[in-house]
Amino acid sequence: MAQKQQHSSPQDTHPTGVRPDQIQLLLDTCKEAKRFAYCPYSNFPVGAALLTSDGKIFSGCNVENASYPLGVCAERTAIQKAVSEGYTKFRAMAVASNMQEDYVMPCGACRQVLREFGKQWDLYMTKPDGTYIVKTLEELLPHSFGPEALKTP
Fold first, then answer.
1. In what order do the strands lie in the sheet with 132-136?
2. Rounded-to-integer distance, Cα 132 and Cα 49, Å
3. How far apart are CA 29 and CA 24, in angstroms?
């Protein structure tokens, strides 16, 4: 499926019910969160903003560690902040980096962590120029494994 650049218009409402003003707030918040990234090894700052089902936004940034595997991505930071405050139902997430030519995508580990909290939510990947693309988590992680697979009959 081709990725096209999209801009929000006041009439747009996305399938998950995210309003254009919420989309813009997510995009602005993830760009702001990127400023706080701790990435002295990769020099690749990433910011994320997570929208809960009741409209609260949690931000996150990547936090690297000299022991590389212990670093945490921006998406997981935002999820962990939300869950630590009692939120587990989400509608959308926006992710930003400094990449000019392409959109930053959540890594496989982040996709699986996001999947823990459902399949039907939107992800907005944005560039510094403000353009963005929208994908559902289902598109980014098709045929996924989730909590329902562990339910016993």
1. 57-61, 46-52, 90-97, 122-126, 132-136
2. 14
3. 8
Neighbours of 92 (CB within 10 A): 24
Q: What is the pTM of this model?
A: 0.88
Residues 116-142 have a mean pLDDT of 95
Region of 28 on the Ramachandran plot (φ > 0 left; ψ -120 to 50 alpha; else beta): alpha
pLDDT at 15 over 70: no
Residue the block writes with tokens 């990547």: 62
**Catalytic hit among 64, 75, 101, 116:** 75
Give the residue among 142, 120, 126 at the shortest CA–CA distance from 28.
126
- E-strand ranges in 69-120 read 90-97
Tell me whether residue 75 is one of the annotated catalytic residues.
Answer: yes
